[in-house]
């Protein structure tokens, strides 16, 4: 059994004392930032990227992955306790979770979220393990044309899953791609769009762009009107859900896991979509749909399982193809490149310990979350009472240190300020930053593969539609685009995102 | 809410995107465009810049068709202090060194909120600096000079 041996290797790698330690740090940090409002997983991972230089590649990726799913977890805690989702994917959890908390069932809601997430995490970890290798096999047959088409699919899906106007999302992708091209042209060595600043010859620093567009823009938005948060919860009691609650969540958890696993693979932010889809499904199949919105147990269990499953399976495109499915995965690509690993189908073959170690660590991390978080909930609730104005000077200082330590390039710090302003501007103009960041990461890759494919085909653009895999991928992209532009889907899509706000 | 016959956010958004598109297009033409077979450094960016102008134009066009929501308050104070923090750090980290530079960076950022009191800000910045030195400089061994040439005697 290959799969068995591989998983064994993975657990050996992830189970070393050192890696367990970094996994623990990762999930704790992740939960912390998930709980603290105003700073998301994307910004945190961006800030911590430079710190991981000193670590072994496996340890650093395990830690970053831990932050990612830890944040999903922490986000649900705040969603339930104060009706404020720390992460956008837990927005759905807030609907029924907060109502459960108001009825005095906060402990049960938190436990249900934890159990659902853990189950979903276990199943989807195995899914990643099962599907990673076959997909890697397919990916190895990819040429330049296929890679180009695949990235087009990724960008198009990120548009489909963005909030608001589709045209704006398209514009964001184009702008992101252009910003990604800043720097020296790889074929001719000509500097492009650097405004004559030599420090930008290697391109804009990815960490600086991510911290600016996500972290700083978010801080500025929080400063617009500083509200004082009220923690409704005095105490969390009765952690164990009742027997009937447990029976009631079995089916929603199973459905949520299935939905999340499938949608997570889609590039463009599947975890968010997954929790919405799961909530809708639960509401449809429920015998008591009127309970939804008033503390339905299934309304917590389903979406929580779905978003956790989606968070795990979004590693599949990253690990097999090197294509990031969402901004956090884009940061993971950055982390791998910093460590000298080229993300893509070769990772599984060349670095089996790293590849399977990360997969195994996901399961270990999920286990840690269940064991740690239930007793630590009291601590997290305390953290919620920290006033925001004490937090952001700390965030700004860490951002500055983090960005500067990547290359010791002070121009990166100026880029942070610029992209912070840009991010805030885009926020005010109701443009989504996620497609921009994805475009930024994929820009150079997209151009390189386009040029290579065109040289290979001697300038004949039909190469993209005559090669079967490439044609299939482009077909998917076209279908997705048509679907999002269909009037009925457009309307539905607006409803979904309105609900989230 | 005053009634506007156009959507302000989309209007600004469209104009800015078109301007950005023109900037990138102009810069791309100055580079070598090349042919589809052998693309020059300007080819792909030029296409993207054209797309950006097109999208900007569509958004601009839409701005006059529907009334939009107001843009809402703008965090001017936040913009000034928050954005100044990393710039200050960038200017001074080599000269002043890590310790003083970070202290003032934290202090500047602290004043972005009108709720912050001066004493709290100083204490916060000091604690922040001590923590960061312990973790980043001593703990992780990042190669920063703790005190730079400007403050050494």
From TrEMBL, chain A:
It comes from the Bacteria. Residues 20-438 form the DUF112 domain. The chain crosses the membrane at residues 20-49, 61-82, 108-132, 138-162, 169-188, 200-220, 318-342, 354-374, 386-404, 470-489. Pfam families: TctA. Keywords: Membrane, Transmembrane, Transmembrane helix. PANTHER family: TRICARBOXYLIC TRANSPORT PROTEIN. This is Tripartite tricarboxylate transporter permease.
UniProtKB/TrEMBL annotation, chain B:
This is Tripartite tricarboxylate transporter TctB family protein. Residues 12-144 form the DUF1468 domain. The lineage of its organism: Bacteria, Pseudomonadati, Pseudomonadota, Alphaproteobacteria, Hyphomicrobiales. The keyword rRNA processing does not apply. The keyword Transmembrane helix applies. It holds the Pfam family TctB. The chain crosses the membrane at residues 9-29, 41-64, 71-89, 119-140. It comes from the Bacteria. InterPro entries: DUF1468. Keywords: Membrane, Transmembrane, Transmembrane helix.
């Amino acid at each position: 059994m290959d799969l068995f041996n591989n998983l064994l290797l993975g657990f050996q790698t992830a189970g070393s004392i050192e890696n367990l330690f970094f996994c623990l740090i990762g999930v704790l940090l992740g939960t912390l930032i998930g709980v603290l409002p105003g700073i998301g997983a994307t910004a945190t991972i961006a800030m911590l990227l430079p710190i991981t230089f000193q670590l072994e590649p496996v340890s650093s990726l395990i830690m970053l992955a831990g932050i990612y799913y830890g944040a999903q977890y922490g986000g649900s805690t705040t969603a339930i306790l104060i009706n404020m989702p720390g992460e956008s994917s837990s927005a759905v959890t807030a609907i029924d979770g907060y109502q459960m908390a108001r009825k005095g069932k906060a402990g049960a809601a938190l436990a249900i979220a934890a159990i659902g997430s853990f189950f979903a995490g276990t199943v989807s970890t195995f899914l990643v393990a099962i599907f990673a290798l076959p997909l890697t096999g397919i990916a190895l047959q990819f040429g330049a044309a296929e890679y180009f088409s695949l990235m087009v699919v990724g960008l198009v899906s990120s548009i489909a899953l963005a909030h608001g106007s589709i045209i704006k999302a398209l514009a964001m992708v184009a702008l992101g791609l252009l910003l990604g091209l800043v720097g020296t042209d790889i074929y001719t060595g000509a500097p492009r769009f650097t405004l004559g600043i030599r420090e930008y010859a290697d391109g804009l620093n990815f960490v600086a762009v991510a911290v600016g567009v996500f972290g700083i823009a978010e801080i500025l938005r929080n400063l617009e009107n500083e509200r004082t948060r009220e923690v409704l919860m005095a105490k969390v009691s009765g952690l164990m859900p009742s027997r009937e609650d447990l029976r009631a969540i079995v089916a929603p958890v199973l459905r949520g896991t299935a939905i999340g696993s499938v949608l997570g693979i889609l590039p463009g932010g599947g975890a968010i979509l997954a929790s919405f889809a799961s909530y809708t499904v639960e509401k449809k199949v429920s015998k008591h749909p009127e309970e939804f919105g008033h503390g339905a147990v299934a309304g917590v269990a389903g979406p929580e399982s779905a978003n956790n499953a989606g968070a795990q399976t979004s590693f599949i495109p990253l690990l097999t193809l090197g294509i990031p499915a969402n901004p956090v995965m884009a940061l993971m690509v950055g982390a791998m490149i910093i460590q000298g690993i080229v993300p893509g189908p070769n990772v599984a073959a060349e670095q089996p310990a790293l590849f399977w170690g990360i997969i195994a660590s996901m399961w270990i991390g999920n286990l840690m979350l269940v064991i740690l978080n239930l007793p630590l909930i009291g601590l997290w609730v305390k953290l919620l009472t920290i006033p925001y104005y004490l937090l952001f000077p700390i965030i700004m200082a860490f951002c500055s240190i983090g960005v500067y330590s990547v290359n010791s390039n002070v121009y990166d710090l100026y880029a942070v300020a610029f992209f912070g302003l840009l991010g805030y501007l885009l926020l005010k103009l109701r443009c989504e930053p996620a497609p921009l960041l994805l475009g930024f990461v994929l820009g150079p890759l997209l151009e390189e593969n386009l040029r290579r494919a065109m040289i290979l085909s001697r300038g004949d653009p039909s190469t993209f539609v005559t090669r079967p895999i490439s044609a299939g991928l482009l077909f998917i992209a076209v279908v997705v685009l048509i679907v999002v532009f269909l009037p009925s889907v457009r309307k539905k899509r607006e409803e979904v995102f309105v609900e989230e706000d | 809410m005053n009634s506007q016959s156009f959507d302000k956010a989309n209007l600004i958004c469209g104009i800015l995107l078109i301007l950005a598109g023109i900037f990138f297009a102009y810069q791309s033409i100055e580079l070598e465009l090349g042919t589809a077979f052998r693309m020059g450094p300007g080819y792909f960016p030029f296409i993207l810049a054209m797309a950006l102008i097109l999208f900007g134009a569509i958004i601009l066009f839409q701005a006059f068709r529907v009334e939009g929501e107001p843009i809402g308050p703008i965090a001017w104070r936040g913009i000034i202090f928050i954005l100044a923090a990393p710039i200050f750090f960038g200017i001074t980290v080599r000269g002043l060194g890590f310790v003083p530079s970070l202290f003032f960076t934290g202090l500047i950022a602290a004043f972005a909120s009108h709720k912050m009191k001066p004493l709290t800000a100083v204490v916060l910045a000091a604690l922040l600096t001590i923590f960061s030195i312990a973790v980043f400089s001593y703990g992780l061994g990042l190669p920063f000079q703790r005190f730079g040439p400007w403050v050494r005697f």
